[in-house]
Specification:
This protein is α/β, with parallel strands linked by helices and 399 residues long. The chain has 2 domains: 236 residues, Aspartate Aminotransferase, domain 2, CATH 3.40.640.10; 122 residues, Aspartate Aminotransferase, domain 1 (Alpha-Beta Complex). It contains 14 helices and 17 strands. The strands form 5 sheets. Strands 4-12-11-10-9-5-6 form a 7-stranded mixed sheet, sandwiched between helices. It has a 4-stranded antiparallel sheet with strand order 13-14-17-16.
């Protein structure tokens, strides 16, 4: 097997809501000498030496993260969203504590309940309004008043709407409220009711390769000195290596995106709304009609009764269209969960969504030959070979 050839990018259409395209500079960092190096560190009895100045890259990445999200504290040592979740839950939840999360059928992450129970925590679910597809704050307030909760870990991985930080804080004033924004990190600059660290979320964290177009890694921001101290004290026991090349790649991503972060986020959302509209026009059953189908990067398509997620998923894969099928909170059945973040990163705008919707309709509704559709998929992908929102502003030393 020619592994390097297999790893090269293929002309495909990426509608995964969990992937994105790195800029050339961010990708180059992953192939630098830093990929196998540790930064300098000291303990009372030891010195781990480094002669390349990797600590400066780490510090620069932290500074960029704080600026990007307007936070007083930032941590970039995590390797993934799940790694971040483990660290946060063990840092802020007391032994045997009570944690509220989103139920998987309401869009919560599949792993959260198992992780919490593995740590010995009691688990309850955040009340969710499946008609409005958002948290029921009145029901949450009533439940918390009846039985106090230590931590609310909001872990939405299938979400069409942004959480309201202030409404959550009003409903649970004494709880530690942590947002797992793995799907939303790149959208938060355009979500002022969610990016709230004073009077809202105690922490915001998540993986950095979805709407945030960085490497596969994790970050956390907070304005709480106490929470920052707890997380900082926990990290040495959860991250012996933070993958220095990935820290450099994340720094480059944040540096390049920083001047465009609001425009980029708004374009992702605009593209998602337009894609939903174009799909409806072609006969697809798209969730969320009562609020414009989506407020985020995601678009949910309900499957016909006579189809299965595997049938549609395999057909799309055979046409070089990358998608995912999951259980959708809108109808509690498996359906297509599409994302527009990578299309936006390619440079696509609203009018380009018609071509994307047409390819899906030809394949899934009209039954056209997958090879013919794949040829047109390749043509569309080749029309957008670059990376938008990635102008270089200043150099980063990564090796």
């Amino acid at each position: 097997m020619d592994v390097l050839a297999t790893l090269q990018r293929k002309d495909s259409l990426n509608l995964f809501p969990i992937e994105n395209r790195l800029s050339p500079r961010a990708a180059a960092a992953l192939a630098s000498d830093a990929v196998n190096r540790y930064p300098y560190s000291e303990t009372p009895v030891a010195v781990y030496g480094d002669v390349t100045g990797l600590n400066d890259v780490y510090d620069y990445c932290v500074d960029l993260t704080k600026e990007f999200y307007g936070a007083r504290h930032a941590f970039v040592q995590f390797l993934s969203g799940l790694h971040t979740m483990h660290t946060v839950l063990t840092a802020v939840t007391p032994p045997g504590g009570r944690v509220m999360v989103l139920a998987p059928e309401d869009g919560g992450h599949y792993a959260t309940v198992t992780i919490c129970e593995g740590f010995g925590h009691q688990v309850d679910f955040v009340p969710f309004d499946r008609q409005r597809l958002e948290i029921d704050h009145a029901a949450l307030a009533a439940r918390v008043a009846k039985q106090p909760v230590d931590v609310i870990y909001l872990d939405a991985s299938t979400a069409l709407r942004f959480p309201d930080a202030r409404a959550l804080r009003a409903a649970a004033p004494d709880a530690t409220i942590c947002l797992d924004a793995s799907h939303l990190l790149g959208l938060l600059p355009a979500a002022p009711d969610t990016l709230v660290l004073d009077g809202g979320f105690d922490s915001i964290s998540g993986s950095t390769h979805k709407t945030l177009p960085g490497p596969q890694k994790g970050l956390l921001v907070t304005n709480s000195d106490a929470l920052a101290e707890k997380v900082g004290a926990r990290i040495p026991f959860t991250a012996s290596s933070s993958h220095s090349a990935s820290v450099g790649s994340l720094a480059i991503t944040l540096e390049e995106l920083l001047p465009h972060r609001v425009e980029y986020a708004r374009q992702i959302i605009a593209n998602a709304r337009r894609l939903a509209h174009e799909l409806v026009e072609r006969g697809f059953d798209v969730a969320g009609a009562h609020f414009g189908h989506t407020d985020t990067h995601q678009v949910w398509v309900h499957l016909p009764e006579d189809s299965t997620p595997h049938a549609w998923g395999r057909l799309l894969t055979s046409s070089d269209i990358r998608t995912t099928t999951v259980v959708l909170p809108s109808n509690a059945r498996s359906g297509l969960r599409l994302g527009t973040q990578e299309l936006t990163r390619w440079g696509m705008k609203e009018d380009d969504m018609a071509a994307v919707a047409e390819l899906l309709a030809r394949l899934l509704l009209r039954g056209e030959d997958s090879a013919k559709v794949a040829a047109d998929v390749a043509d569309l992908a080749r029309a957008f070979p670059g990376v938008a929102y990635a102008e270089r502003s200043a150099p980063v030393a990564v090796g």
